[in-house]
Design goal:
By secondary structure, this protein is an all-alpha fold. It has one domain: ACP-like (Non-ribosomal Peptide Synthetase Peptidyl Carrier Protein, Chain A). The chain is 47% helix and 0% strand. The protein is built from 3 helices and no strands. The longest helix has 16 residues. It is globular and about 35 Å long. It comes from Streptomyces sioyaensis.
């Protein structure tokens, strides 16, 4: 599972997710209100918060499909940076 920082940040970009609703790993982010502008803003926030840079091949709709997929990509970037 992901860290609290990731969940708090992501929730800020999901207007259709209630404050008390759990964020499931396989929920479609688009269904929770993440649109194309939100993706760009979320990308910038994640890069700033985690001090990583998403590579071009990770900049796809598939990366931002679900919280689980996004966390997998992000955590991989963080691990690569630490190595």
């Amino acid at each position: 599972m992901w860290d609290q920082k990731f969940e708090d940040l992501l929730r800020g970009f999901l207007p259709f997710l209630g404050a008390d609703e759990p964020l499931a790993q396989d929920t479609a982010l688009r269904d929770l209100g993440l649109d194309s502008l939100g993706i760009v803003e979320l990308l910038a926030a994640l890069e700033h918060t985690y001090q990583v840079r998403f590579q071009d091949d990770a900049l796809s709709q598939a990366t931002f499909e679900t919280p689980g997929v996004l966390w997998k990509v992000l955590s991989g970037l963080v691990e690569d940076q630490a190595a």
